[in-house]
Structure formats: C-alpha cells, structure tokens
Here is the input.
Amino acid sequence: MTEVEQHNLLKNRFRGYFPVVIDVETAGFNAKTDALLEICAVTLAMDEQGNLKPATTIHFHVTPFEGANIEKEALEFNGIRDPFSPLRGAVTEDVALKEIFKLVRKEQKQHDCQRAIMVAHNAHFDHSFVMEAAARTKLKRIPFHPFCTFDTAAISGLALGQTVLAKACKTAGMDFDGKEAHSALYDTEKTAELFCRIVNKWKNLGGWPVMPEPENDTNNN
Here is the structure.
C-alpha cells in the first residue's frame, strides 16, 4: 500500500479514533436528572480519495427513565409534546444505547480503529447525556472515549466563523431547514455533513496529510 493510500484510511486520519456523530434531544440541561428523549448516531467512512462521508444512521425515540425531570420549556423547544405518548414508538434508554454501541463497535472494528470518539455540536452536552444514560442503565463496553470529543461548534468557529449549527451549515453552502431543526435525526445528519465538509475542505486545501515545515537554511543567514 502506498503512502497516499495509507493516509486515506480512516484509522490513520484521527489517530486511530473512529468518529461517530451524535445528537440528543432532552427534557432539560442536567444530564443526571433530566430525561433523554431522542438520540441519533451517524457513523462515518472514508472513500478511496480520502474524503470523509456519512455511512450508517441509527435513530431512536427514548422513553423517559423512571423519576426523570421534564422541563416544559425543553419540550416546547424540541417539539416533543408528550414524551410518554405510545405514538412515539419510543424504547428504553438501555435498548437505544445497546443498539447504537453495537453498531459503533462493529464499524469501528471494520475500519481497524482503536476507539470511537463522539462528534457533536456543543459536544459536552450530548456526551454528558450519553454517558449518564449508560451509567444509569449499567451498560458496559462503552465504545466512546470517556472525555475527548470533536466539537463541531468549535471546529465551525475556526473554519467558518460561525458556531450556531444552522448558520455554520448555510455558510458552508448547505441547505438547512429551521422547521426540521431540533429533531435528533435531522440535526445529526446535518452535523455529520458539516463535519465531513470541513474535514474534506481542509484536505483539499493541502492541510492533510500533514507535511513537515521546511527547515530554515542557516547557511544562507
């Protein structure tokens, strides 16, 4: 395998990490007390030219855990009128996370990556809810790094001068429907597309693979 082909392997792009885009919708801001209501994950892959692209999408509506706090303002924000409605087709936290973790581990292995890393917009928020739900349901073998994340809000601020998801997407030349926003499925798919666009543009501008800076020729000084 040539050096270029080696650089175009996903396992070599992020120091062995397997990036997975996550978005959650919740009933508040406190991961310890407030309900997780919706979660979506989009795995990523790399083509032969070394361009990052979305791969597999998995999405669940989630039943509030027993005793969960539910803030009215949060429901108004994300448009979930009744988190207990059977029409939502919701599953328990452990079912949703088990299926997502199973998919992540499978594709992480396929790409020969060492560990998954969460990609999210304002990633600390999503990461905290996933980790708290995993602890609450006593799930083992969590594929994600316990504290490291790729935050597309920060990355977009650097690359596009925007930190709000909708504005960053539009600045990147993407369509963004405000009426669809705050759905975990829609926001995850848009975040995945945005992350891929920024990573691929960096490569196309010559930022990847990293080339060493030329040494100063002291003999000419």
